[in-house]
Amino acid sequence: MEPHVAALSDSTYRPVWLDSGGRPDILASLEGNARCQLLIVGGGFTGLWAALQAKERLPDLDIMLVEQTFVGDGASGRNGGFLNTSLTHGETNSDYHFPGEKERLEELGLQNMKEFIETLERYNIDAEYEHVGHLSVATNEPMATKLRTQFEAEKALGRDVVWFDGDDMRREVNSPTYTAGLWHREGQDGVVNPGKLCWGLKETILSLGVRIFENTPVLDVTPDGDGMMTTCGGGAIRSDKILMATNAFRSLLPQIRKQVIPVWDYQIATEPLTPEQLEAIGWGKTRHALSNEANMFHYYRLTKDNRITWGGGGAVCYYFGSRTDQGVADDRGRFERLSKEFFETFPQLQGVRFSHRWSGIIASSTRFCMVPGVAFDGRVSWAVGYTGLGVGATRFGARIGLELLGYQPSDVLDTLFVKRRAMNWVPEPFRWIGVTLTRHALAKADANGGKRGLWLKFLDFFNMGFAC
Ligand SMILES: Cc1cc2nc3c(=O)[nH]c(=O)nc-3n(C[C@H](O)[C@H](O)[C@H](O)COP(=O)(O)OP(=O)(O)OC[C@H]3O[C@@H](n4cnc5c(N)ncnc54)[C@H](O)[C@@H]3O)c2cc1C
């Protein structure tokens, strides 16, 4: 057996984040009929933050949250835990989709991040937040040149950025593949333990009086007089309003189904590294959170107990027909590919084994950031489609979802970000053909030192030549 395959042979298919102590009990499912003022569908970050912010705005609001499996079983318990201030997946994307709003959206992102951290402190939520910023690494000269240009532009704007040339970079984290690095220390970006964040938010909203029902799938949503009727496995709920926080999962609302597609992303985690292994890669002095500058980029970081989690790269995949079923979740070939890419980056770690492997679905929108919406005369809203950058942005998405339902609306609702409708994805089979072509073109550009072919140039014209 090849070493990178053997390294996976004892791994468990489970997110490392959901496999640690302190996990709260799974709550009872809904049995029979119930009423509430606000029903939240989905127990990921968006649903949890929506419940929390609704309770902070309106403490007497009667809120129920229903989750089809358990809180954190979606992307929220399966991500890399990179906490990023951007609400729009970067400035270029922001400029393209929301012209004239870059500064406003930046301010809103900063405010969101500040309130995010303050909330953790206020409710004693131990999400293992580490304020480490974000380090982008180059693995070839064209990438290094691109990063250097970015560094100079950001430095000129007075941002807190640090440049590492090849040797300096390898002293920070030692991979023979690195040719340069750009460390963004600005603001409060860093990493969290996503599982603990879900659990902390869940316990907090329970303490504020939110009723949570797990193992309670929503099967149907229909208008009922001036409110809404929701049919769940096990019962029905009459509510004044509904906030849909179901992200990449197949939505009951066709409007949402057209605007997000599920993209599968795979991750592996090593066993805890020994001090000698950490020393061998120099990582640990600064607990950098890294990603490389490739189109099909890897993202990786240390956990509190010094495992490396490693995801992204060539394993990312969209399956024909927007599949979200478990049939594609534990795809050995994709994990083996990740493992191979891991040892190419850190050959000094030969012999290290992976304890966990898992996958999750990213909701990709055509604007590569959150898509809000409202239907049924303002009685149902949604916030979905964060496209791989939702750990921080979901708190903001939840806020928008609440405001669209009329809970203390603000002038944020007047922004293009909220008002401009996202383009729909094309239907199948064009959807699968388009996404697959793009994925191959991005991988080819990576292999060609970043040189973009005709298809990517065509997509760039519409700001669409992007991975998640
Ligand atoms: C592998 C991976 C890595 C990622 N890494 C990062 C990262 O490092 N940084 C970052 O910023 N973002 C990252 N993301 C994205 C981020 O995790 C998501 O944007 C975010 O978690 C979305 O939260 P959510 O609550 O909207 O969706 P989810 O967490 O997916 O929650 C939706 C919930 O709705 C429930 N649900 C769906 N349908 C129904 C129904 N009919 N009835 C009841 N319940 C239902 C689901 O079970 C699920 O729990 C990553 C995503 C993945 C998959």
Descriptive labels:
binds flavin-adenine dinucleotide, eight-stranded mixed β-sheet, nine-stranded mixed β-sheet, 14 helices, single chain, FAD/NAD(P)-binding domain, alpha/beta, 468 residues
Task: Give the topology, please.
Elements: H1 3-6, E1 12-13, E2 32-41, H2 45-57, E3 63-66, E4 82-83, H3 91-97, H4 102-122, E5 134-138, H5 141-156, E6 161-165, H6 166-172, E7 180-184, E8 190-191, H7 194-207, E9 211-213, E10 218-224, E11 227-232, E12 235-244, H8 254-259, E13 261-270, H9 275-281, E14 290-292, E15 298-302, E16 308-312, H10 332-345, E17 354-364, E18 371-375, E19 380-384, H11 393-404, H12 416-419, H13 430-447, H14 454-461
Parallel strand pairs: 1-17, 2-3, 2-12, 3-9, 5-14, 12-19
Antiparallel strand pairs: 4-8, 5-7, 6-7, 10-11, 11-12, 13-16, 13-17, 14-15, 15-16, 18-19
The chain binds flavin-adenine dinucleotide (FAD).
Describe this structure in words.
With 468 residues, this protein is α/β, with parallel strands linked by helices. Among the domains are: 19-116 and 194-260 and 367-419, 3-Layer(bba) Sandwich (FAD/NAD(P)-binding domain), CATH 3.50.50.60; 430-461. Helices cover 32% and strands 22% of the residues. It has helices at residues 3-6, 45-57, 91-97, 102-122, 141-156, 166-172, 194-207, 254-259, 275-281, 332-345, 393-404, 416-419, 430-447, 454-461; strands spanning 12-13, 32-41, 63-66, 82-83, 134-138, 161-165, 180-184, 190-191, 211-213, 218-224, 227-232, 235-244, 261-270, 290-292, 298-302, 308-312, 354-364, 371-375, 380-384. Strands 1-17-13-16-15-14-5-7-6 form a 9-stranded mixed sheet, with helices on both faces. Strands 2, 3, 9, 10, 11, 12, 18 and 19 form an 8-stranded mixed sheet that branches. Helix 2 links the parallel strand 2 and strand 3 (63-66). Helix 2 packs parallel to helix 7 and helix 2 packs across helix 11. Bound molecules: flavin-adenine dinucleotide (FAD). Flavin-adenine dinucleotide binds next to helix 2, strand 13 and strand 17.
